[in-house]
Amino acid sequence: MSKFDSPRLIADIGGTFARFVVETAPGRYEHASSLRCADHSDFYAAVTAFLTGLPSLTIAHAAVAIANPVDGDEVRMVNYHWHFSIEEMRQRLNFDTLVVVNDFTALAMAVPRLAPHELRRVGGGAMRENSVTGVIGAGSGLGVSGLIPANDGWVALGAEGGHASVAPHDERELTVLRYAWRQFPHVSFERLLSGPGLELIYRALSDAAGQSGVALTAPEITQRGLANTDPLCRETIDLFCSVLGTAAGNLAVTLGATGGIFIGGGIVPRLGTYFDQSPFRARFEDKGRFSDYLRAIPTYVITSANATFVGASAILDSQLKLRNLDTRPRTALLERVRRGLVDLTPAERRVGNYVLAHPREALNEPIADIAAGAAVSQPTVIRFCRSLGCEGLSDFKLRLASDLSGTLPVTHAQVTNTDSTVELGTKVLSNTASAILQVREQLNSDTITRAIALLNGAQRIEFHAVGQYGVVALDAQFKFLRFGISCAAYTDSRLQLLAAAALQPNDVAVIISSTGRVPELLEVADRARARGAALIAITASQSPLAKQADAALIVDHVEDVDTQLPMISRILHLLVVDILAVGVAMSRSVTPVAEAQSERLPMDDVPIVTPESEATGTQGRRKARRASPGVRAATPLTSLTSHSSSD
User: Fold this and answer.
1) Where are the beta strands (DSSP E) in 307-369?
2) Are residues 212 and 272 in the same domain?
3) Is 545 inside a domain boundary?
4) Of 315, 350, 370, which marks where a domain is finished?
5) What are the two backbone dihedrals, phi and then psi, of residue 331, each rounded to the nearest 5 degrees?
């Protein structure tokens, strides 16, 4: 977590209560307050009421977890009447940053940061490390989310699984569903798994039992059921726990959540140890043929009262790191947009507000989506970019990417007929750079080491490719010949089969294929393996060629070869060849040769002047090794990737 430059406001907004804290240092929450939403006319009134009661503090950054989908700048609560614009609220509250996220997205981000004493295990199973995790919980509604491991962190899912159609398990639940259908044309899990859902279940069971029943609130139902003073209330919370088990089991199999299911919300933690003996776990595991799969997945109740705060704080912190807002100069692009709004036309101002509210989306979305999000025409988006002194949208995105993270964006931009020459060049270079960075993430050091070892031990190396990738094989041949290694490149399918049939056990065949599914190259691989030769593949993952190879160097980049020649993928394959060549050069401790020998003339063509040639006016030629026995016929490491004059 980054160092705080000022206290941060963290909020958890539900349909009944709005909870606030001030995070004064990482993980240190002070000035906690819980306000009833009904006591305040809107979100702004609740926040200002909390801030008014604080001592003199300067708050620059805030994170709000809200029980509602968050998709765009406009937030409209489903279970309450509050609605607001995020950017407008940021300006009214005078915050530098206001991050608003779904409350269960925040809760999910808290899970990896919770201590063991903040969880209570329910049932068996064993957590699988670094695996997908599910989060579910009932309060004023039903929240659902999940965590997916990504590099050294996690990606939280902004899911709305609470609105999935409820699935009755037995006749009693079907009776409750039929009762609910009288009021609602669609009955979701949230209709039953929530505070109002407890009340609906109680009324349905009362109706089925022929009892008029007393109108009880969810807290009253829970209290009587736990005290076991009202059989109908006890049956209500039993059925509630059963349906929750069904929903949690559905989430587990949908996500493949072998990292566990974590249960939050306001209801289950209040059930205490009763929940541990309730029908929940039995129903969670009850998935017929897939029951064994569910038994292996652990379930936990989140007991920490600050879990949502922890997750919201983590999301805010990551946003601040991403945007570099704590240290960025005030002349950054987003600040220029913010200051320049008053000078823009009303339509351009809408684009500016959209960019300020959704900087990451504006970075990656096509112009049509940006225009739709801002409710303007596409030419207006271009005019907005030029108003800021940018060449066009592509130039604006490059500057925005630098503003957000200090690096080029890792995105793919489609070249169109309307692009200027500047935009065309920018897109081609950016797309290539993006693909290179993605391949860098795919590199496997063990596979590269194994491939270099095979090449170093080879008596002969053959490079095989077809079509547009033939130049990659020829480039590889050129590089490895300069090491004095016997090698050849084959791009004709008939010659490839003949050459592969002559391979020996100490030889290596390197097959270069973007798809790894070309029949001719697969036949070459079969023949090479039959001859006992080692096989290195530069190809796509999970392809037939990759599965045959002794070392598969993965390049996953898809290009539409029906409409264009391979461009980026060819460059990626050339770079992989460079990696192998540099690796072989380093392992052989290559001795640099003279520049005149490596760049000006082929080594076999160095003219040798003898007394006889001087007398006759002719010059003889000798093999370089005979003329210069102390110099190895190899390329210096520094020139392996910069031989444009030779190419």
Assistant:
1) none
2) yes
3) yes
4) 315
5) -95, 10
429 within 8 A of 409, measured Cβ to Cβ:
no
Residue 620 to residue 611: CA distance in whole angstroms: 10
126 Ramachandran zone, left/alpha/beta (phi>0; psi -120 to 50): beta
Going by C-alpha positions, the residue among 608, 632, 634 that lies closest to residue 620 is: 608
| Same domain, residue pair 570 and 614 | no
Could you list the residue range(s) of the whole structural domain that residue 406 is in? 333-421
State whether 339 and 367 are in the same domain. Answer: yes
How far apart, in whole angstroms, are the C-alpha atoms of residue 244 and residue 194? 10
The partner residues of 145 in beta bridges, in order of sequence, read 135
Give me 383's structure tokens.
């005019």
Helices vs. strands in the chain: H and E counts, helices first: 29, 20
pLDDT surpasses 50 at 356: yes
Dist. CA 111–CA 130, nearest whole Å: 12
Residue 4 in contact with residue 303, Cβ under 8 Å? no
Angle at 205 between CA 203 and CA 211, to 5 degrees: 75
Q: How many domains does the chain have?
A: 5
Same-domain pairing of 178 and 298: yes
Q: Please give the DSSP secondary-structure letter assigned to residue 117.
A: G
Return the structure tokens found at 413: 């931009």
Question: What letters, b where the CB count within 10 A reaches 16 and e where it falls short, cover 179-215?
Answer: bbeeeeeebbbbbbbbbbbbbbbbbbbbbeeeeeeee
Residues 123 and 260 grouped into a single domain: yes
What are 165's two structure tokens?
């159609």
Residue 619: Cβ-neighbour burial (10 angstroms; 0-12, 13-18, 19+): exposed
One-letter amino acid at 47 equals: V
Residues 168 and 213 grouped into a single domain: yes
**In a domain? residue 113:** no
Residues 293 and 190 in one domain: yes
CATH code for the domain of 532: 3.40.50.10490
**From CA 460, how far away is CA 195, in angstroms rounded?**
74
Average pLDDT over residues 418-437: 68
- Please spell the DSSP secondary structure of 145-174, one letter per residue: EEEEEETTEEEE----GGGSBP---SHHHH
- Measured CA to CA, the distance from residue 573 to residue 511 in angstroms comes to 11
Tell me: the pLDDT tens digits for 281-327?
A: 999 999 999 999 999 999 999 999 899 999 999 888 887 776 543 33
Q: How far apart are CA 509 and CA 359, in angstroms?
A: 48
Q: How far apart are CA 296 and CA 446, in angstroms?
A: 32
Segment 327-339, tens digit of pLDDT = 333 335 777 787 7
Q: How far apart are the C-alpha atoms of 348 and 45, rounded to whole Å?
A: 30
Residue 219 tokens read as 């807290």
Asked whether residue 430 is assigned to any structural domain, the reply reads no
Pair 599, 579 in one domain = no
83 vs 626: CA distance, rounded Å? 85
Cα 478 to Cα 118: distance, rounded to the nearest angstrom:
62
List the one residue out of 338, 412, 379, 349 whose CA is nearest residue 94: 338
